[in-house]
């Protein structure tokens, strides 16, 4: 499906930032063996990619507001539109030379998510969706969520709270319950890719607590436009407000939500 003018703006910004990240990613292996390590370099790569995206989107749509991982809130004259951007989702993977990371760009209009793009510059997979127009991979393949109806057949993915992050006790309760019911659990290290892969039918479900709007805004649009169901972990629509998400198909959602209830997970 030909991309709209809006999506072409988003794709152009993502691909330009992606080229920058791909060049920097090529340096990570050498940096791994240095005394300082790659930490400062990765931070610079992250900021550079964000600057490219900010510049490109601002030039194409002057006045739009921004919510970005590094810059935070940037108020524009146009209060009805807001870009929600993560220039490098999967920073730890990037730092370790693991090619699972992505650029995530979402657009909010009047408080509603209307467009999303997730781009892995290493695999050159670009997942894009606009409200009411469907979701596509590289402008060619229409995306649809998987149609599995049984948790026992489902391959699911999640994020695992690590050092310095809250939620360890809650996660341990949840995973203890969920592994009893599903075919397998994976962890990619990138929320944006997790959501994109649910939209593509590669994963049957994804859930996570403690993630931010820039991690999931674009992916929410992708899953919805691929025919999936997206909610917070109570089944509501406050994903961005509650910093949590469940993405799957409507059949599995009904079975998945009870497993995330604290009283069930604590049993």
Automatic annotation (TrEMBL):
Transmembrane segments: none annotated. This is Inositol-1-monophosphatase. Mg(2+) binds at residues 69, 86, 88-89, 215. Keywords: Hydrolase, Magnesium, Metal-binding. Its EC number is 3.1.3.25. It catalyses: a myo-inositol phosphate + H2O = myo-inositol + phosphate. It holds the Pfam family Inositol_P. Its cofactor is Mg(2+). Belongs to the inositol monophosphatase superfamily. The lineage of its organism: Bacteria, Pseudomonadati, Pseudomonadota, Alphaproteobacteria, Hyphomicrobiales. One of its GO terms (biological process) is signal transduction. PROSITE patterns: IMP_1 (PS00629), IMP_2 (PS00630). One of its GO terms (molecular function) is metal ion binding.
């Amino acid at each position: 499906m030909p991309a709209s003018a809006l999506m072409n703006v988003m794709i152009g910004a993502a691909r330009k930032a992606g080229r920058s990240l791909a060049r920097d990613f090529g340096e990570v292996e050498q940096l791994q063996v240095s005394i300082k390590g790659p930490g400062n370099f990765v931070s610079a790569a992250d900021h550079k990619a964000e600057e490219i995206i900010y510049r490109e989107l601002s030039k194409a749509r002057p006045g739009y507001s921004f919510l970005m991982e590094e810059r935070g809130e940037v108020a524009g004259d146009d209060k009805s539109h807001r870009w929600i951007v993560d220039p490098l989702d999967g920073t730890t993977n990037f730092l370790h030379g693991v090619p699972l990371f992505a650029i995530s760009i979402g657009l909010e209009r009047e408080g509603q998510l209307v467009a999303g793009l997730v781009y892995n510059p290493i695999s050159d997979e670009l997942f894009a969706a606009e409200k009411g127009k469907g979701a596509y991979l590289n402008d060619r393949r229409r995306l649809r969520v998987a149609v599995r109806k049984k948790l026992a057949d489902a391959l699911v993915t999640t994020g695992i709270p690590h050092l310095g992050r809250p939620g360890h006790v809650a996660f341990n309760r949840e995973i203890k319950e969920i592994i009893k019911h599903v075919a397998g659990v994976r962890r990619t290290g990138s929320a944006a890719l997790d959501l994109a892969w649910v939209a593509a039918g590669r994963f049957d479900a994804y859930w996570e607590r403690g993630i931010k709007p820039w991690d999931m805004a674009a992916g929410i649009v992708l899953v919805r436009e691929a025919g999936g169901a997206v909610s917070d972990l109570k089944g509501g629509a406050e994903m961005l407000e509650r910093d949590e998400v469940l993405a799957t198909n409507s059949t599995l959602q009904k079975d998945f939500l009870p497993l995330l209830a604290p009283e069930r997970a604590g049993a």
